[in-house]
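Tutorial handout. Part one gives the primary structure; part two gives the three-dimensional structure as tokens.
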Amino acid sequence: MPLRRILGLSAAVSGRLLRGFSSSAARPTWAMIHPLARLADSRAPRASLRFAEPPCLSHLVIPAHFADPPRHDPRGDDVSLLYGGVIKTSSGDGLLLLAFMDVSATAPIVATRGGTQVRKLTAIDLDLDMTRFVCNPLSGQVFRLPDIDGTKKTSWYSEMGILTQSERPDRPPDRYAVAVLSEDRDGEGRSFVMRRFLSQTGEWEKLVGLPSPLPLARRINIDLEVLALAGRLWWVDASWGVVSSDPFSDQPDLRFVELPRGSVTEPVESWEDWRVQGRYRHIGVSEGRLRYAEVSKEKPFLLSSFALDDDGSGWRLEHRVALSRVFPHGDYLSGDDTPQIGALDPLSASIMHLTVAEQAFSVDMDRGKLLSCSLRGEGTGLPCVLPPWLGSSRIPSAGNEIFQVPRQMAKRLYQTYWFVWTETRRIEVSTKPTGMGILTNWEADGW
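Part two.
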């Protein structure tokens, strides 16, 4: 049975489709932002947010001069296979943490045909160059964080979070911290290491020997975005639990809370298992509380939502809904066409955003009612609250100018090489301009 019929997308349901890109004059209160930042071949002084009503995805557009893409000698052997930005997480009050990565390779020129270079790919550098930014998506302000220990070779610092502090409640932040937490496998006993950047100092620091709060001889596998809540950052292992800490503290205390009883599983080892796990369980923030949600893989597809207790010691079941009774023709959901968790609504704990194949849905768990649906097409996004003061506020700094000055760019901004397998095992290329700069297509032997 076609998916459209399974989900009951009749004229009546289609009438409730959420709008795509908003034309409303009302100020948006939150956005679901696509996890990949778009680079624009532009000298604009600010980034921009192309807003769409959730659960549709908004897009963050970064002028390329901010991201400082690699500029390899077009006659040299080094090339960029991939250069792009990922939106890692949100501060909880609108600031975004971005990470741009450069995957470089060695591909010497082996011939020139009619002005087109022919290169042979001989090596790929897996030690990626990383550049990180803090961005205000409404004002468009972008601040580049300094490199950790003076090097861009820091791809292993992957799951970072950003937390803000304000002297006045519900006002723009006065400071922020960016931090990454990892187990110290070289130290004696069980302990953690924190690398943190404080806006007050403008420098990275290293804190070692933080006592481990983990109750078992099991390593935590931080596999989701780092959350900001209640003056702490929360690092998530969706198979086990959450570790939290205050990155502003001189002596950060680490705390651990296990997932609800019956939700703890064996450690996830493979990438495929991690990917599947992320479809059916999620930890996020809504209405100022940490919440955990999971959906069963079999009928009736029970969606369960839990809230962390006030003392942070356990979870309370808030909602349990049989989705096969919520979706029109839900009895026909099966195989790959089963409900998966997209995101928690950050402003309403009863609203869950789900996906089924190419459709995105909003469900009111209090009423057991399907609110809206739309074509998904782009995956799931990162919830980002947009406070009323965000568009007019500045990113806190240590007193330095926080707007980056656009530097003069060459006509050829950068080169990206697309590798396309053909039946002749050659990778074919030509040169053409695009909206993202200059893409150089080429062919290479032996790969």
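Part three, for discussion. Confidence is low (pLDDT under 50) at residues 1-25, 400-447. The chain has three domains: 1-25+266-378, 34-140+380-447, 159-258.
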